[in-house]
Design a protein that fits this description.
By secondary structure, this protein is of the alpha+beta class. The protein contains four helices and eleven strands; from the N terminus they run ββββαβαβββββαβα. The strands form three sheets. The protein has a five-stranded mixed sheet, covered by helices on one side. The protein is globular, with a radius of gyration of 16 Å. The two termini are 21 Å apart.
């Protein structure tokens, strides 16, 4: 369900592996209501929401007795679908943004183009392979599925850092801020921001 006046969308995804209900309001206040079986992802989505000034609710159950993969992947899919639906024809948006966010010793950069051409580039080397019980390679899985389903071009660069938690959190904060800027309405933009006349 999509409300184009509010730039808001709801996604329900039920499979043999996960059961997810997600609502995203692009023009929000940073209200995050996140309930998943993956505590570290809850923390990252909370940071993403607050720094992007979205409203995001996620209720997700998954087969975490196997591992966190299906839950993380499917939430990325649902969040991407919600962003795509909530933006409609993308008329008036700024479209692109590049944001640096530090977190203590770590520095991350996220560049987005709401282009309708899904592409993902990821440059990050983390000092550890897990944060708590969370497998760090799932960050790539989440971001790639999010970019694919939202049909955006997404470049993520972690320039440096020594604490894996800080490095990943800087990425999610930067993603929120970049999307906040790229989805914002620019009164100078007539129609969609493309020489093609369509995105």
């Amino acid at each position: 369900m999509t409300d184009m006046n509010k730039r808001e969308a709801s996604i329900v995804r039920t499979t043999k592996e996960t059961d997810i209900k997600l609502n995203l309001a692009v023009d929000g206040t940073g209200d995050a209501q996140i309930e998943t079986d993956v505590p570290f992802l809850n923390h990252m989505l909370d940071a993403f929401t607050k720094h992007g000034h979205f409203n995001l609710s996620v209720n997700a159950k998954g087969d975490i007795e196997i591992d966190d993969h299906h839950t993380v992947e499917d939430i990325g899919i649902c969040l991407g679908q919600a962003l795509l639906q909530s933006l409609g024809d993308k008329a008036g948006i700024k479209r692109t943004a590049s944001v640096f966010v530090p977190m203590d010793e770590a520095l991350a950069q996220v560049i987005v183009d709401i282009s309708n051409r899904p592409h993902f580039e990821y440059r990050a080397e983390y000092p550890s392979s897990v944060v708590g019980s969370f497998a760090v390679d799932l960050v790539h899985e989440f971001l790639w599925k999010f970019a694919l389903e939202s049909r955006i071009t997404l470049h993520v660069i972690v320039h440096y850092g020594s604490n894996t938690h800080h490095m990943i959190e800087a990425v999610f904060k930067a993603l929120g801020r970049a999307l906040d800027e790229a989805t914002s309405i620019d009164p100078r933009v007539q129609g969609v921001p493309s020489t093609k006349g369509v995105l």
